[in-house]
Amino acid sequence: MAQRLKRPCGHPGCRELVEKGYCERHRKERTQQYDQARGNFRERGYTSAWDKLRKWFLTNNPLCYDCLERGEVTPGKVVHHIKPKSEGGSDDTENLMTLCHRCHNARHERFGGKRQKPS
User: Fold this and answer.
1) Are 74 and 106 in contact (CB under 8 A)?
2) Rg value, the chain, Cα
3) Which of 9, 27, 72, 103 could lock 99 by a disulfide, CB 3.0 to 4.6 Å apart?
4) For 14-35, how does the pLDDT look when each residue is reduced to its tens digit (9 = 90+)?
């Protein structure tokens, strides 16, 4: 299989060659800036009441929703908001689903930077 040509990092002025996106240094800087801008989990509205709801929801919905859709049985570890709180979503159980880390990362495309709409 042919290897892609490398190109300059996406950060203005950086000449580091990468396969896509940013070099390791600038990827790390962008992640840190993003994390600082969004605030910590308490600042984003995840209170002790959320901790209790999350624990209750995982107890009552222990398997990953997306894995079950594919016929796989995987324990869920993350309570995911179908409509994000940042977009007006609530903590109502109708707006929650249990996901494993792999499926949660895939829905958010954690390592690609774009948010994926729920299916």
Assistant:
1) no
2) 18
3) 103
4) 999 998 889 999 999 988 887 7
Q: Looking at the whole model, is its pTM more than 0.70?
A: no
- Kindly give the residue spans of alpha helices, DSSP state H, lying in 7-100: 24-38, 48-60, 65-69
Phi/psi of residue 77, nearest 5 degrees: -125, -15
CB atoms inside a 10 Å sphere around CB 98: 25
On the 0-12 / 13-18 / 19+ scale of CB atoms within 10 A, 103 is buried
Q: Residue holding tokens 């016929």?
A: 71
Portion of the chain with pLDDT greater than 90, in percent: 57
Question: Which residue type sits at 98?
Answer: T
∠ CA 34-46-36, nearest 5°, is 15
Q: What own/partner pairs with CB < 8 Å and gap ≥ 24 does 104-112 have?
A: 104/78, 104/80, 106/66, 107/66, 107/80
